[in-house]
Specification:
heterodimer, A: 241 residues, mainly alpha, 0% strand, B: 259 residues, 10 helices
Chain lengths: 241, 259
């Protein structure tokens, strides 16, 4: 359908459009920017309720929930993000999202790389424990976050026993071919750092004799470590923090 | 009363009369009754905060249903007028196009207020008080904006399907634009990165062009009593500004149309 010329539109109508558009933009600009507030983070509904809300397609819903949760990082007036958040609620949300999308890695990345970085040891431990708990559900897929948690426990929390627990979990459960050897060898070097040379030596010897390590360079490096453990009573520099 | 205003009011009255005769009132009442039953189920299965859960469910679903019913009714009614050549007939009389448009809008705004009143009454047993009055007034404003939007869309697209699709997409975006703006400026995204900054500015620009519907008809006003007259005044101002824009845009299209 051909339209009539612009000139047929009365001037007051054109003026109304221009004026109203200018008013709308001005009104929107003078209003404060939307800001997330820590206290607005709600307790998540049950997994069943979230599934119902996702209308039978939980993955995009889980992804949207993740992005929504992520928006709580920029709280006004908080110099260190995440610190004011209720970590009980954060943990509950991350668990719900993982229930909706078990193959997604995003929630565990957020737990270990974002929420565990706050300068609050209790909150750090809470997030690392969440990673540990969820790692056990699918170790071969979620091992990177467990390895990161072990490093965090050792270097940030200075809690070698906790780091060892995580490293032992890696060795015991992350047994798939996609898991690199360094992740499974963390336990040995942590024993070494704790001064338990004998245990480290036994584990390293067992690893070498099992034939799991095929790379010649890696084998050479581990043999040298075994010699060092057998001959000397001091931890070596690569595993020192 | 000037003769043009008289004609405008007559069109508005007949628009309201049409809604009554096409049983829109009964449809709204049946939907509200079903939603009330649904809210009883929610209350029944809740472990704690049962009344809060029931009120929240009924408020959110009733608001969404009201928006859907109103826009669908308006699009159907206007499309029928176009198909039956009623518009051609009316405009052949001594009536400016603006008079016809304002008359229709007044009628639909009246229907919007009526639906808002019924919805508010449905919530009265659960959340009586000032909060409910503020919520109801805000719903009336929100539905008035939706009526203006749907009218503009029907005038522009003349068919129900594209008009309703646009209304729903616009409504969802306007309701969620604040959340989208928050997501686009997250500190996790390296805010100094040029691409992230461009995206954030584009989203901001989109936010300026949309009405802030997320400030309207908040369920927190009912369950947490956080509503205030100042918040309602902001809603009213937003309705005035954006309603004028939609009316102007609709009129612009109607004047350019070859009937």
């Amino acid at each position: 359908m051909k339209q009539r010329r612009l000139a047929v539109v009365p001037l007051p109508v054109s003026a109304l459009v221009v004026l109203a558009l200018a008013s709308q933009i001005t009104f929107a600009i003078v209003q404060a920017r939307p800001q997330a507030r820590a206290e607005e983070l709600l307790t998540p509904p049950s997994a069943a309720s979230l599934r119902a809300m996702s209308l039978g397609d939980p993955i995009p819903f889980a992804q949207l929930s993740t992005l929504w949760l992520q928006a709580f990082d920029n709280q006004p007036g908080v110099s260190i993000p995440f610190l004011d958040l209720d970590y009980g609620k954060v943990e509950a949300w991350l668990q719900r999202i993982l229930e909706l999308d078990p193959r997604g890695q995003y929630p565990l990345m957020m737990a270990s790389q974002l929420y565990a970085q706050v300068p609050d040891a209790r909150k750090q431990r809470q997030m690392l424990e969440l990673v540990h708990h969820e790692f056990l559900v699918d170790p071969n897929r979620r091992w990177p976050w467990m390895a990161h948690a072990a490093i965090m426990a050792k270097h940030r929390l200075n809690d070698l026993p906790l780091a060892l627990t995580y490293a032992q979990a890696l060795t015991a459960y992350a047994t798939g071919p996609e898991v690199p050897h360094w992740a499974r060898q963390m336990e040995i070097f942590l024993y070494e750092d704790m001064g338990e040379y004998e245990t480290a030596r036994i584990l390293l010897g067992g690893l070498l004799s099992s034939g799991a390590v095929q790379d010649p360079h890696e084998t050479h490096f581990l043999i040298e470590r075994l010699k060092a453990l057998s001959g000397a009573e001091k931890p070596s520099s690569p595993s020192k923090k | 009363m000037p003769p043009v205003l008289n004609k405008v009011l007559t069109i508005a009255r007949f628009t309201l009369l049409e809604a009554v005769r096409t049983r829109l009132l009964w449809i709204v009442l049946v939907i509200l009754a079903l939603l009330f039953l649904g809210s009883l189920f929610v209350q029944h299965i809740s472990v704690t905060e049962t009344a809060r859960m029931q009120t929240g469910f009924l408020a959110a679903t009733a608001r969404t249903s009201a928006v859907f019913v109103l826009s669908l009714y308006l699009a159907g009614s206007m499309a029928r007028e176009f198909n039956d050549k009623v518009v051609d007939l009316l405009l052949s009389l001594a009536l400016p196009r603006a008079g016809y448009y304002f008359g229709k809008f007044l009628g639909y705004a009246g229907i919007a207020v009526g639906i808002a009143a019924l919805t508010t009454l449905a919530l009265a047993p659960l959340a009586p008080g000032v909060g409910l009055v503020l919520w109801g007034a805000s719903l009336a404003l929100e539905l008035t904006l939706v009526a203006a939007l749907a009218l503009f869309c029907v005038i522009t697209f003349t068919q129900i399907m594209p008009a309703i699709s646009f209304v729903i997409a616009f409504y969802l975006l306007a309701r969620s634009i604040s959340a989208v703006r928050l997501l686009s400026t997250s500190q996790v995204l390296a805010p100094n990165d040029l691409t992230n900054r461009i995206v954030a500015h584009l989203v901001d620009a989109l936010g300026w062009l949309l009405p802030g519907l997320d400030h309207f008809t908040s369920t927190a006003w009912l369950v947490d009593h956080t509503g205030s007259l100042s918040a309602l005044a902001l809603d009213a101002f937003q309705t005035l500004v954006y309603g004028s824009l939609l009316l102007g845009a609709g009129l612009f299209d109607l004047y350019r149309r070859n009937l």
